[in-house]
Amino acid sequence: MHASVGYAEFHRRSIEDRDAFWGEQAALVDWHKPFDRVCNYDNPPFARWFEGGLINLCHNAVDRHLKDRADQNALIFVSTETDTERTYSFRQLHAEVQRMAAILRAEGVKKGDRVLIYMPMIPEAAFAMLACARIGAIHSVVFGGFASHSLASRIEDATPVTIVSADAGSRNGKVVPYKPLLDEAIALSVHKPTSVLMVDRGLAPFTSVPGRDVDYASARQLHLDARVDCEWVDATHPSYTLYTSGTTGKPKGVQRDTGGYAVALAASMKHIYMGESGETYFSTSDIGWVVGHSYIIYGPLIAGMATIMYEGLPIRPDAGIWWSLVEKYKVSVMFSAPTAVRVLKKYDAALIAKHDLSSLKALFLAGEPLDEPTAKWISEALGKPIIDNYWQTETGWPILSICNGVEKAPTKFGSPGKAVYGYNVKLLDDQTGEELVGGNQKGVVAIEGPLPPGCMQTVWQDDERFVKTYWSSVPGRMVYSTFDWGIRDDEGYYFILGRTDDVINVAGHRLGTREIEESISSHPRIAEVAVVGVADQLKGQVAMAFAVVRDASLLTDEAAKLKLEGEVMRLVDEQLGAVARPSRVQFVSLLPKTRSGKMLRRAIQAVCEGRDPGDLTTMDDPSALQQIKDLLAKTVT
Ligand code: AMP
């Protein structure tokens, strides 16, 4: 549509001629009834996109492709945990989604009702999400790694009619039972669902609750020939809620609309990911996270692409597994996270290079800062463009990226690129709220309203919290805060310097832990590092670093550790100045992270300060935090 338009003009138009721009993008999806108004921003900061339009996400993801590609792959399920590989064509996916939709209807689920999905990465999870969209129910997927307390708070907030779950997930060959956690969560929650639909994978025997639990396989048999038409919903009808943790204990239900989301995803598939119908998209995320919603399920399917749903680790059976899938299914677009690449980096790059990757156009990475050594390593190993995306659960699709589908542009190491079309990104002084217009000034990354289509509408059932949390933190102006620090160079490339809430202050100097991490990880012997600010009587805070070394044998060699610690400190001195030098650099074999790969810096910080690390239910491997505790205990004595 705009192949000849330069990116700067494309972006300018998306802001200055917003309605015309998005009105055109809206043609990328099917509408049952056209919208009357592109953007209603009469009541800021609440944006209502495509008012008056009637649409259905499931129709756009599945039904509309039946005409041209009914027998092409839609969903490719690969589990290296259970050694299963199964493909579903669009026709088969259409049938399965209708069966699931019929089951949900039989359980009394109506338009606007919530369905909570607590599932491992199996096709039935995708069927359930799409079935909800089909009947206008609002899904709320809760990551399978959450334990009962976190799950209970989400059940209470979402008040689902039905919960869809499974007996178990599996991780690294170990069965992880879900049902006991779910039963406990329901017992803890004041709200009780009327029914629980159980997919029995035969991994972990469980007890059914009579009158409440429904066996999916038997229910499916009753609805094999189900025909459930798409329920046309208002464009502003909520499609889902997805919980993200905030600074308070209570999770926020990020609420997304339907029409704006469909348009935003379709446009992103074209302008950012450059995925074409008939090709294959492989996102290694999990349906429990926003990337899973947007780029395992809805985005690729809306674009008529096959999507790979992968259950397993990137290194099992060996570190070549993902790349063998790229070869086998001719993946053209791949999406992962830097943390996964750092895991792969410990293995031989030949495991990647031995596969035929000629179908792959680019690898997109998002979710956390992409450090330069990691970006360089994967870029050399793949020989493909590596594109860093910056976004949040709240936005649903990238805020910063290179948009090669509009105009090819170079990437810069350490930068997720420029403001994506639709996002009026500003850098603001956190104290005064003033806009920082000159290059290379550090400010809060903020977005001027209205947020573009696809971004959060509000906090579920809590408009006030939406306004208070996101739109009131910058003094003197109503602007959306990302809570991230950033700088922008003279060419408009942004660099993210970490969360505004992770900032540390050493002797009056403000430092982003991210900057120190970047510096430390440029040492060739360091694989990964976490830096936290720890309370210090003299300096207010000091930086403490915990680094994973590439060669684990160093961990038992005290003299070598001391030497490396000195080298790392000198490196930081050299790169950032002595003010940023960590008071200690300790070496560990792994770092505490959530299962989605986010570093649990707050937990590390709490442990360093002798405080309770708080809720650790999302932590991947508890031994990581224990290692830090042990190191600290040794240091004190
Ligand atoms: P989540 O909502 O869990 O996806 O977390 C969003 C946060 O992750 C952002 O506010 C950033 O702090 C961080 N983040 C996401 N993508 C990037 C990226 N490409 N570079 C740096 N930080 C990122």
UniProtKB/TrEMBL annotation:
AMP-binding enzyme C-terminal domain location: 515-598
Domain AMP-dependent synthetase/ligase: 64-450
Keyword tags: Ligase
Broad EC category: ligase
Protein's UniProt name: Propionyl-CoA synthetase
Keyword Nuclease: no
EC id: 6.2.1.17
Family: Belongs to the ATP-dependent AMP-binding enzyme family.
Single GO molecular function: propionate-CoA ligase activity
Domain Acetyl-coenzyme A synthetase N-terminal residues, every copy: 7-61
